[in-house]
Amino acid sequence: MQRLKESQEALTLIYNTYNAVATKPLTPLKVNDAEALKKLLNAVMNRESVSHVQNKKSLKESTELRSALADVLLLLDNCDIKEIKANMKKATAAAV
What's residue 60's pLDDT? Predict the structure, then answer.
């Protein structure tokens, strides 16, 4: 699937950007391992929670990384959210 490959490449770029600005680097990225990606997503969300509790501003790269991780996880499950949204938009436009 072409979109999976593109999303994995985007995830790699965002992951590298996040690690460049983070105080503690994340575990190595495994773009084809759903379990490793889930653990990575949980780690990013936990870091955001800790930042929030400590009244610190979370990294803007964190949001981008969470989004990219979720996109790749969905694609690994053969669920293309962009395609679903496009189809919904078409259906809504046709109904009007």
Answer: 82
